[in-house]
Structure formats: C-alpha cells, structure tokens
C-alpha cells in the first residue's frame, strides 16, 4: 500500500494559552517526524481568535472553508477572551462552524490516568483508568426544534424536541464499535435512559443491538445514564469505549477527564471519520486568561491532542509513542509543570516530552 505519509496541517493557535501550548504540540510532531518518517506541512492561521475579531469584526474570513478545508487536519489551541469578546460570539463564530461545516459528528475524549496526576478517586493507580468517551456531536437532545406557547403567562408551555436519525445514530455507533474492536478489551458500553425517555432512547438501544451484530468480537452492555455516572466514579476500571448521545456524551466527556485528574492534560477530538473534511484536535481546556502570557501553562493536553490527530491520520505507532513520552515525563516530578506541583514552564515541559520522544526505543 502506498499511502502518502505527508500531512498538511492547519494550525490555529487561537487565544490565550492556546498560543503558548500549540508550539509545544508542533515540537512533539517534529520529533515524531524524525523518528517515524512521516512529514508535516504546518500552515498557520490567525483567524478563529479574538485578536482577529477585534481587528476584523468577525471571527473568520468569508473564505475560511477554502483556506483550511483541503487540509488533512486542524490542530487547534483554544478560543475565547471574554474580557473583549463574549464567549458565545467567539465560540459560535469559530469552533461551532468547524463542527457543522466539516460534519465532525464524533467527539472523542480519552480518559486515562497518567503517572504523577492526582486522581480525585482515592486509591486509583495509572493503568486502572483507560477508556474513551465517544459523544454524538450533531443531533439528539441539542436540536433547536421547539418553542414556547403562551409565553409569560400562567399557561406557559415550553417544548424542545430530541432528534435522532438512523443515519446519525448508526454512524456514531459504527465509529464506537470500530474503536472498541481495535482495542485490547473490545468492550463497548452504551449510555441510555430508556426507562424514562420512552421514544428516542429505546430507539438508540435498538440501533446499538442491531450494530452489535456486525461486531461479534466486541462485548457490549448498556447502562442508564444515572447509574453510569456513578460507575464512572466507583468502577472506572470497567470501561473501555463508552458511546453516548449528544447530551449524555456531553456530561460523560467532562466527568471522565475529571475522574482522571487535571484539566491541563486532557485532549479532545472532533472527528469526521470518512475524512470528507478535516477533523479538529484540541485540548479540553480553554484559553485560561488567568495564566496566559506567563509561560506556565501545562502543554500536555495540546501534545496529547497531537497524538489523537496522528491516530486519526493512521499513524498509530507515532500516536502511541507520544502518549508513552508524556507518561515518561509526567512520571518524573522534576519535569512537571506547576499545576502538577513541578518546577517547569510550558516550553521546558514541551522540550522534555520531545526529548523523550527522540530517545525512546
Ligand atoms: P472554556 O474556554 O472551556 O470556557 P474556561 O475558560 O472556563 O474554559 P479554562 O481556560 O479551561 O476555563 O481554565 C480553567 C482553569 O484551569 C483556569 O484556572 C486555568 O488557569 C486552568 N488551566 C486551564 N488549562 C490549563 C493548562 N494547560 N495548564 C495549567 N492550568 C490550566
Ligand atoms: Mg473560556
């Protein structure tokens, strides 16, 4: 197979600490390139940032889709500077546009307890927690269909519909089952609430059962969302791949990384699995105005996002190497950033991870 291993990456640092951690992500990718032979062209874009907004009055130029639509992936820092641009303007003018226009219907977040990162769950060791949350990103509970009748009166009625389409449900389930199939445990858990939400959730369950037939080697189960959140806290070691609708996935994809520790290290991906459009890789954290410009942000979330990007591009070995290098560095107290009680700043921590990548065998 002669697959090209040259990747064009649209790099969008955005705001605040995004501008500090993105270069550390690129440094890790350059180290990967030296070791694994894949090559990258990094095209930097200044739009999708509040600075761009203040200069141009919009978050992105009219032709933003032409500018980045042909790239293999988008490597994103963080967007938002609420002091000068309201969050709904910056978010809706950038990330939400990417998600919609590039049909990034999978939101993927790994939940993995790393060495040196204190978990709020007592007694958990690295290795105990290692799973993925797969969230449906385009339909479900987050539809804008509905409205108010007799607003402002005693008879007020408010309705909002959940929308599930067969295409929409099946494509997220397919992604989740395929991910489970690639993993060692081959275990998929589906979040439901068919005992309370009597129309859409039984349909979701039905589609899971149907999809499972195509993956006989994947063991699967389902839990109601209420007990599932309890299990995240009490038995995080049970999980391997957890798939959920938009609302349930939203909750689980914040709860999961919280169980595994600090916000500075968690990565995320918004994926279009068919690769009709570029997917987007970003840390879970935001622009962190309170620490921006000080050189102290933890770069691990951004670097780990680079690993998710490599995995999506088919560079699986390189992706695992980045995660391993992060583990190597976090295991050493003197190589951690301040949020983890260490002495290093953003650049030195990023350099340590790149070094670990080059030295690992
Ligand atoms: P969002 O942009 O999603 O609305 P937010 O702006 O409310 O999020 P963040 O920017 O993620 O929040 O910051 C939340 C807190 O976590 C802040 O106190 C910030 O300093 C801290 N934090 C976030 N990212 C990092 C990081 N990479 N390293 C160290 N601390 C961080
Ligand atoms: Mg913010």
Automatic annotation (TrEMBL):
<comment type="pathway">
    <text>Carbohydrate acid metabolism; tartrate degradation; 2-hydroxy-3-oxosuccinate from meso-tartrate: step 1/1.</text>
</comment>
<comment type="function">
    <text>Has multiple catalytic activities. Apart from catalyzing the oxidation of (+)-tartrate to oxaloglycolate, also converts meso-tartrate to D-glycerate and catalyzes the oxidative decarboxylation of D-malate to pyruvate.</text>
</comment>
<dbReference type="GO" id="GO:0050319">
    <property type="term" value="F:tartrate decarboxylase activity"/>
</dbReference>
<dbReference type="InterPro" id="IPR011829">
    <property type="entry name" value="TTC_DH"/>
</dbReference>
<feature type="domain" description="Isopropylmalate dehydrogenase-like">
    <location>
        <begin position="8"/>
        <end position="353"/>
    </location>
</feature>
<keyword id="KW-0520">NAD</keyword>
<keyword id="KW-0560">Oxidoreductase</keyword>
<dbReference type="InterPro" id="IPR024084">
    <property type="entry name" value="IsoPropMal-DH-like_dom"/>
</dbReference>
<comment type="pathway">
    <text>Carbohydrate acid metabolism; tartrate degradation; 2-hydroxy-3-oxosuccinate from L-tartrate: step 1/1.</text>
</comment>
<protein>
    <recommendedName>
        <fullName>D-malate dehydrogenase [decarboxylating]</fullName>
        <ecNumber>1.1.1.83</ecNumber>
        <ecNumber>1.1.1.93</ecNumber>
        <ecNumber>4.1.1.73</ecNumber>
    </recommendedName>
</protein>
<dbReference type="GO" id="GO:0046553">
    <property type="term" value="F:D-malate dehydrogenase (decarboxylating) (NAD+) activity"/>
</dbReference>
<dbReference type="InterPro" id="IPR019818">
    <property type="entry name" value="IsoCit/isopropylmalate_DH_CS"/>
</dbReference>
<keyword id="KW-0464">Manganese</keyword>
<dbReference type="GO" id="GO:0051287">
    <property type="term" value="F:NAD binding"/>
</dbReference>
<keyword id="KW-0479">Metal-binding</keyword>
<dbReference type="Pfam" id="PF00180">
    <property type="entry name" value="Iso_dh"/>
</dbReference>
<dbReference type="GO" id="GO:0000287">
    <property type="term" value="F:magnesium ion binding"/>
</dbReference>
<keyword id="KW-0456">Lyase</keyword>
<dbReference type="GO" id="GO:0009027">
    <property type="term" value="F:tartrate dehydrogenase activity"/>
</dbReference>
<comment type="similarity">
    <text>Belongs to the isocitrate and isopropylmalate dehydrogenases family.</text>
</comment>
<dbReference type="InterPro" id="IPR050501">
    <property type="entry name" value="ICDH/IPMDH"/>
</dbReference>
